[in-house]
Amino acid sequence: MVLNARGDREMDTEAAEIRVLDAAATLFNERGVQAVGMDAIRTASGVSLKRLYQAYPSKSDLLEAVLRRRDEVVNAGVERYVAGGADPRARVLAVFDFLADWFAEPAFRGCVFINTYGEMGGISENVAAVARGHKLGLRTRLAELLAETDLPPAAGEALAAQLALLANGAMATAAITGARDTAQQAKAAAGLLLDAAGV
Amino acid sequence: MVLNARGDREMDTEAAEIRVLDAAATLFNERGVQAVGMDAIRTASGVSLKRLYQAYPSKSDLLEAVLRRRDEVVNAGVERYVAGGADPRARVLAVFDFLADWFAEPAFRGCVFINTYGEMGGISENVAAVARGHKLGLRTRLAELLAETDLPPAAGEALAAQLALLANGAMATAAITGARDTAQQAKAAAGLLLDAAGV
DNA sequence: ACAGCGGGAGAACGATCGTTCTCCACCGCA
DNA sequence: TGCGGTGGAGAACGATCGTTCTCCCGCTGT
Q1: A187, B142, B197, B198: least CB-packed within 10 angstroms?
Q2: Is A26 exposed, middle or buried (0-12, 13-18, 19+ CB in 10 A)?
Q3: Do B109 and A131 lie within an 8 Å CB cutoff?
Q4: Domain A7-57 classified CATH 1.10.10?
Q5: Which of A176, A182, A192, A193 to mutate to test the interface with B (most CBs of B within 10 A)?
Q6: How far apart are CA B116 and CA B62, in angstroms?
Q7: Is domain B63-197 classified as CATH 3.30.2350.10?
Q8: pLDDT at B13
Q9: Is any atom of strand C within 7 angstroms of residue A50's beta carbon?
């Protein structure tokens, strides 16, 4: 956090940005992007339209900021679970424990990248690129975890891709069907795939 | 096809409805639902707004018709592939061959149920219900195919759920990342899960 | 105390959308 | 030839949205 000469004023601006990001993330998650008006974000965040547009010059800028922040939050959440794993197998499976706790949140309505790609991926290359980056990041992280095993690199990459399919499928399926045990099903399947690879 | 006293007139109406459904499905797939105006559907289909609103009294009625038709088309496509399988294992894996050919279509931009749920599932219970029905249908069909094996029913249901996760994950991942071998990765993972179950 | 300015509330603006309405050309039938 | 009625093209309407502007309050430095 950087302060300029008028320190507290700067902090207020930063707090306003965070409130805007939180409100927008919540509303986008609940209703999608296009169904949420800037006025609703203003009301939910308590930040005036003038400051809102000072921080994010357009709605698509705000959306991009929300997605980038969500990317960081999700990655950090994954790392929190992965860190508790004793060996590579446990660390990979911990990703699915992260999913289980995420799906159990009352506000869970799916992965914002999958949802926003579905809504705007066809009309916004920015949205498509951020979603692509996020999903490639998950797959890459799984590959990194598997690189710690004695699996050949190519086999690790292939297994990581399959585990990412399970994770993404669990996100979409849990959102749509609401089935409460989706993450556990995915974790069980992931365990079988790890077994088959000898991990 | 039912004809009334003014036979050909009735056929024109039916042809118009099909043109509207085709145009709407294409545009919704390309751009999402809310970004497509009724005027664009009118232009793409060549059916006047008056007849369009005679057939579908509102945009959400049209969306529901598009989704129901897509459900039938997808199910029929799956059956076409499944029918070629010699044994239950081959029939289950044929579902992933269906995915491979689907993903290779130039207009592929993901599963319309996943996409539309992401866009409107939070604001339209109808959309959420149709998406849920479609996804439960896929899972149920997989369970039926596995019921033909000597797997215990509970194990078949669990395996079907895991295979459905792979299929849905492949749809979302192929759409977002554009990776061309996504369906093959999912098929390989499905094969390993079938191996583990002894199918 | 007072000029100046940053910020808040919300009106205003232009565009777009879903839906309806108007107007007119065309067709079957007497 | 005249007539009723169906359907097409597109204007019209009311609502909503993203974005900007106006007006005014309250603070700040002298």
Answers
A1: B198
A2: middle
A3: no
A4: yes
A5: A176
A6: 13
A7: no
A8: 78
A9: yes
